[in-house]
Amino acid sequence: MNSGKQMRQIWSKVSDMRMERKLLLVFLLLVTLPLTFIGAVSYRNYSHSIEQNTIDYSTNMLSNMMDRVDDYIEDMVRISTIPAYQDDIRQNLNRSNRYYEQRAQSSAGGEGSSMPADLDLLLSIQRGIGGNISYINTIKRGANSVYIFDQYGNGYYSAKSGTRANIKESYGLWEQKLRNTTGEAVLFSTQKYTSNMKSIQYAFTVVRKIIDISLKDVGLIAVDANISVIEDQVLKLDNVTHGKSFIVDTEGNVVYDSGKKLLATNIADQPMLQHASGDKGSFYLDEDGERHLYIFSTSSQNGWKMIISIPVKELTRDSVVIRNVTWIATFLTIGIALLISVFFSFALTKPLRTMIRLMRRVQGGDFNVKFQVRRRDEIGQLGSQFNQMILQIDQLIADIYVMETKKKEAELHALQSQINPHFMYNTLESIRMAAELNDDRDAANMLAILGRLLRYSISDLHEEVTLASELSHVRYYVELLNYRYRGRFELVIDVAQPLMDYSIIKLVLQPIVENAIYHGLDDNKPLMHINIKGEYAGSQVIVRISDDGVGMSLETLERLNADLSGQTGAEIIPARKSTGSSTGGIGLANVNERIRLHYGSGFGIKVFSEPGAGTVVELLLPREEED
Fold first, then answer.
1. Domain boundaries, the chain
2. 81-226 CATH fold
3. Segment (H or E) for 148
4. Are the C-beta atoms of 64 and 308 separated by less than 8 Å?
5. Is residue 245 predicted with pLDDT exceeding 90?
6. Which pLDDT tens digit goes with each residue over 126-176?
7. β-strand pairing of 614-622 with 145-150
8. Nearest to 551 by CA among 523, 586, 585, 577
9. Which strand (E) or helix (H) includes residue 192?
10. What architecture (CATH level 2) is domain 461-626?
C-alpha cells in the first residue's frame, strides 16, 4: 500500500514537471537505459566467460597434474619393490635378522651373558645394503630418502638432504600400519619431521614389507618423496590462476599447501573439503569476507584431491577494466546527450512558452493577442487553433452579454407568472370556505385536499423532503381520487418508522401511483389495491410500489425497462388499459431521470410486471450516509 502511494506521488510530480524538463528526462532515459543495459550485459557475459574458461582450463591442468603425481607415486611404488628382487638386500637383511636375533637371545639368557657386538659383520651388512640404497636413490629424482629396516627395526639408509631425526618413531608408525598387509605398498600422507641437519622437512612416503623367496618377511622399505617434486608444478598453476592449491588425502590430511600453513594437518571439518564431493567440479565459498572460486579434481588411483582456491576479484580483474571503460564511455555519452537535449528541449518548448504568456494575457482580459504561426507542425496547428479560439471567445462574450440581458427580462416575467399558482391556491381556499358555510362537506374536503396537493406541487422540484411528506402527498392524492371514484382505491403503506425521516427529492412517488391508477386500473375488479413498502437493503434504500391491475406484456415490459435504463428523454406510457386520461403527472421517465441526475447513474427505477397479475415499480435509492 505504501509503495503504491509513493509511486503515485512520484508519478504526480513527474506529470507536473515543465515540458522542457520532461523532454530532458526522456532523452536521458533513452540514452542511459540502453547503454547501462548493454554495459551490464557485456560485463556479466564477459565475467561469466572468464570464470567458465578459468574453470575449464584449471580443471584440465588439475587432471594433468594429478596424473603426473600419480605417475610419480607409481614410480615410488615400483622402487619399493626393488628389494624383493635383489638377493644382496635380502641376504644382508637375513644376516641382520639372525645377528640381532642371537643378541636378543643372548640378552634373554641372563645378565652378563650378552654377546659382544660383531663390528665387522655389522659393517659388512651396512655396506651391502647401503650400496643398493644409493643405487635406488639415483633411479628417481625426488626420492630423497630411502630407508630399509630389518625385522628388529634396525635401519639402513641413504639420504640426499639428511635423514629423519625421529627415525625410530617413524618406523613404529610404519610398522604398525604394515602388520596386516601381505607385501602391498602403503602410501602415507605428508609428514612433518626434523632432519639430522636440524631443518624442517615435509615428505610423503611409500612403505611396504620386504619378502624373500620363501614368502617370509625379512624387513620393510620406506621411500620418502619431498614435496618439492609437487611444488614446482603447483607454483606454475598458481602463477596462472593467482590462487592457492591444496592436495588432500582421503582422510582429510593435507599433502600439499601453497602457503605451507596447513601442511601435515587435518582439514576434514573445513567447508572447503566438505563441498569438494565427487570426482571433479567447482563451487564458490566466502573466505575472510572475500568470495573465492574453488576447483577440484580427484585422483583415480589413490583418492587424493587437488583443490585450487582463486579469489573472484582476480578472475574479474580484466572484466572490471572493461566495466570501468564502459561506464566512462556511458557518462561521456550521457554528458554529450544532455547538452544536445538541453538545446533541443528549449528550442521545442519555446513556442509553448510564448503561447502560455499569451494565455495569461487572455486570462487577464486582453483578447487582442495573436500567436505568430511560423511552422506547419503540431505547434503551428495549435497556434492556429489558439487564434481561432480567441476569436470565438470574443464572439461568445458578446453573445453572452446579449443573452444575459434577455435572461434578466425572462426572470422578470417569471416573477410575475408566479402570482398565478398562488392566486389559484387562494381562490380554491375561498371556494372551500364558501362550501363549508353552505354545509357542503365533500366539496370542502375535496377543495382542501386539492389545495394541499397544489401547495406541495408549486415549490422547487429539486427540493428534498422526508419520505413521510411524500407518503402524505400520496395519501391526499388517493383520497381525492376516492372522492371521484367512490372508494375504488385502497392504499396500504408499510414503511418502518426510522425510514420516515429519509430525505428524498419531491414528487417521485405520486407520479408512479398516478401511472398505476390511470394505466393499470382493471374494470373487472371493484377495488384496486396499491401497496407502498420501504426498506433498507445494505447500502441502499428500496421503495416498492405495487398494484393488482392489468399488468403488461413481456415485450412491453422489456421495452419499458430498456428505455428507462437508456434514458431516451421521452416519457414512457406503458401499453396497459387506459381510462382515457393522460399520464396525469410527470411520468416514469421523468422521475427516473430526476433520480439518476440527483443520486447518480447507479440508482433509478425498475419495473416488474405480468399480464393480469399487476405491476411492481422499484425505486433504488442510496442510504443517507452515502448520499
1. 81-226, 461-626
2. Beta-Lactamase (3.30.450)
3. strand 145-150
4. no
5. no
6. 887 877 777 777 776 655 688 889 888 888 876 555 678 888 888 888 988
7. unpaired
8. 577
9. strand 186-194
10. 2-Layer Sandwich (3.30)
Residue 294 clears pLDDT 80, i.e. is over it: yes
The string of pLDDT tens digits covering residues 504-531 is 888 888 889 988 888 888 888 888 889 9
DSSP calls for 76-129 = HHHHHTHHHH-HHHHHHHHHHHHHHHHHHHHHHT-TT-PPPP-HHHHHHHHHHH
pLDDT at 585: 34
Q: 533: which residues sit within 8 A by CB, 6+ positions away?
A: 493, 494, 495, 543, 544, 546
Query: Which residues, in sequence order, are bridge partners of residue 492?
Result: 531
As a whole number of angstroms, the distance between CA 342 and CA 32 comes to 15
Neighbours of 136 (CB within 10 A): 21
Closest CA to 529 of 613, 445, 407, 405: 613
> Do 613 and 551 form a contact (C-beta atoms < 8 A)?
yes
Question: Considering only CA atoms, which of 560, 546, 543 is closest in space to residue 505?
Answer: 543
Note the pLDDT of residue 143. Answer: 52
pLDDT in tens, 333-376: 778 877 877 777 777 777 777 777 777 877 777 777 777 777 77
